[in-house]
Amino acid sequence: MQKPPTPANEAQRLQALRSYDILDTPPERDFDDLVAIAAAVCDAPIALVSLIDEQRQWFKARTGLAAAQTPRELAFCAHAILRPEQTLVVPDARDDARFAGNPLVLDDPNIRFYAGAPLVTPDGHALGTLCVIDTKPRDLADKQHQALTALSRQASRAMELRRVGRALARQLQESEWYERRLLQYQSELEASNAALEASNADLAALTRTDPLTGLPNRRAFALALEQAVARSHAAAPLQVALLDIDHFKTINDVHGHAEGDRVLLAVADALRLYAAGPGSVARYGGEEFLLLFEAPQPQAQLQCEFVREAIANLPLGLPLTVSIGLAAYRTGEEPAATFARADQALYAAKRGGRNRVVLAETE
User: Fold this and answer.
1) Do 92 and 137 form a contact (C-beta atoms < 8 A)?
2) CATH topology of domain 9-169
3) Considering 85, 226, 287, 309, which one is annotated as catalytic?
4) Does residue 195 have a pLDDT over 80?
C-alpha cells in the first residue's frame, strides 16, 4: 500500500475546506439524494460524498457503508484529489500497488472497485470526491462515467450554494444589502435545484436502461408488468417470456466480446419488432431477455415461436438459436415470482435440447 502524497496546495486546500463549514454536520437531503442516484446509475452497492481534511476522510453522505469516516492514509479519495481534473478509476484494487495492502481492501468493506470524481471549488481546490465502490472487480460504462462526473459537479455546486447561503444568513442582520444578496442567491439555489431535479430525472432514466442495447432493464420491465396488471381487469391474461441465447459463452470465447456485443444488439433489434410497447421487451441480464405479452398463452406461445425463428434467420454469419421459457402471470403475485417460473421453463427448454419454447408448469 502506498500512502497518498500531500497535494502541493494543501494549506490553501484545507483553508478552502474549512470555509465551507461542512465537516461533522448532520446529513442533508441534497447530498443524500446524490449518493443514492450515483449508486443506482453506476450499479454500485456503496456511494459516498467524501471530504478530506488533515487526518481523515469524512463522509457528508453515504449509502451502503456504516462508517462515518476513515483515516486519510487509507482513503482512496486522498489519491483522487491529487488530480482535480479527472475521475480516478481503480478496476481492481488488489492489482493496484497503491491499494493492494490497504486494510479497506483486505478486510471490511472489501473494496475491489473504486471510481471517484473530485469535488472542486471555483478556485480549483479538490476538497473530496463523489465516489462509488464495489466489492468485485469491474469498470464503468461510458454513460456511467459521464453521469458520475455530472453528479460530482452537482455536489460541488450544492456545497458552494450552501456556503454562500450560510454566509449571507449570518450577515443578514447587518444591512438591507445583505438581505437582497441572500434573496438573489436563494433564487439561484432554486434555479439550481430545478436544474438538478431535471438532471436527476434524466439520470433516473439511465437506471432503467441497459447501456449496451438501449432496451429497458429488469427494473423497468418489472414496472411495466405492474402497470400492465394495474390497467388490466382480473381476468386479463398476461404472459412473461424469458429468452436466453444458446451457447453465448462459446460465441464470446471463440469470436471475442466485440462479436458477442454485436449478437446482443442484433437480438435486441429483432425483439423490438415483436414488442407490443416500449416497456414490453427488456434485457434481463447477460444474454437473457424478457418479453411481456398481453394476450392468452397460446397466442403468446406462437409469438415466441416467431421470435425464435426470426433470430435463427438473422444474417450474422454464425449459427444462432435461442431457448425461451413462457409463464403466465398469476393474479396477486410479485413480478419476481413470475420471472422465476419463466426461468424454470427456460431451463427446461435448455435441458430439452435448446432452440425451443417451453411453457411453465401450471398448478
Assistant:
1) yes
2) Beta-Lactamase (3.30.450)
3) 287
4) no
User: Exposed, middle or buried by CB within 10 Å (0-12, 13-18, 19+), for 53?
Assistant: middle
Name the residue among 23, 14, 11, 67 with its Cα closest to residue 162: 23
**d(C-alpha 176, C-alpha 193), whole Å:** 26
What is the per-residue pLDDT across 81-117, written as a single tens digit (0 to 9) for each?
Answer: 999 999 999 999 999 999 999 999 999 999 999 999 9
40, three cell numbers: 443506482
Phi-psi region of 173 (alpha: psi -120 to 50; beta: other; left: phi over 0): alpha
218-359 carries CATH number 3.30.70.270: yes
Q: Residue ranges of the domains in the chain? A: 9-169, 218-359
196-211 tens-digit pLDDT: 666 655 555 557 788 8
Residue among 172, 115, 106, 175 at smallest CA distance from 139: 115
7, 91, 111: which is closest to 54 by C-alpha? Answer: 7
> Alpha-carbon distance 38 to 148, whole Å?
6
Question: How many alpha carbons lie under 13 Å from residue 322 in its C-beta half-sphere?
Answer: 31
Q: What local confidence, expressed as pLDDT, does residue 331 receive?
A: 85
Confirm whether 226 is a catalytic residue: no
In degrees, rounded to 5, the angle at the alpha carbon of residue 300 between the alpha carbons of residues 297 and 301 is 85
Place of cell 479497506: 104
